[in-house]
Design a protein that fits this description.
Blueprint lengths: L1 H18 L2 E2 L1 H13 L34 E9 L2 E8 L6 E2 L13 E3 L4 E4 L13 E3 L4 E5 L13 E3 L4 E3 L1
Parallel strand pairs: 1-3, 3-5, 4-6, 5-7, 6-8, 7-9, 8-10
Antiparallel strand pairs: 2-3
Length: 171
């Protein structure tokens, strides 16, 4: 009886370890870079856990995909060896201030990206072409400046809608 109990504990433990899912390392670092570059500690969070939890880079066990961080949706059904990809980032009106860091473009599996109603400034990152899965982009009501990257017309992108209202961007 004891051996059966030990075997069951082993099986349950192995299945939990094998099914653990976490955010892809490059994407986790891109999120951290975004948080650091845009004054993350001053972001406005929606109240209550029903909106997800505040981003937490100080706790090593906290993970955007497994801990349901606010504004992030991960594809937990298509994880590669436990690594899940961020597919939606919605930080509308979260009080992001600053520029988008170059590492931001490592969120290359994002399909929907909404950063409207913040205080983002500067030019859009050069390597937005890395984000080939983008279908929806909203950068409206920020102070982005410079030219709109021609890559938004690239045939390698799946872009269906782009919103750049009330920015300082030009063609």
């Amino acid at each position: 009886m004891y051996n059966i109990f030990v075997c069951l504990i082993y099986i349950v433990t192995c299945s939990v370890v094998l099914s653990y899912k976490y955010t892809n390392t490059n994407q986790y670092n891109a999120l951290k870079s975004l948080y650091d570059a845009t004054d993350g500690p001053s972001w406005n969070w929606n109240g209550g856990s029903r909106y997800g939890y505040q981003w937490n880079f100080t706790n090593e066990e906290s993970d955007p995909c497994t801990n349901y961080w606010q504004g992030i949706l991960c594809d937990v059904y298509e994880c590669n060896e436990g690594e899940c990809m961020v597919i939606n980032l919605n930080l509308t009106g979260t009080n992001l201030r600053g520029t988008l860091p170059p590492e931001f473009t490592n969120l290359n599996e994002i399909r929907s990206l909404d950063l409207t109603y913040n205080s983002l400034v500067g030019v859009l990152p050069d390597k937005l072409y890395n984000m080939t899965a983008l279908q929806y982009v909203a950068f409206s009501y920020n102070q982005f400046s410079g030219s709109i990257p021609l890559l938004f017309g690239s045939t390698s992108m799946e872009l269906e809608a782009i919103f750049l209202n009330d920015t300082l961007l030009f063609i």
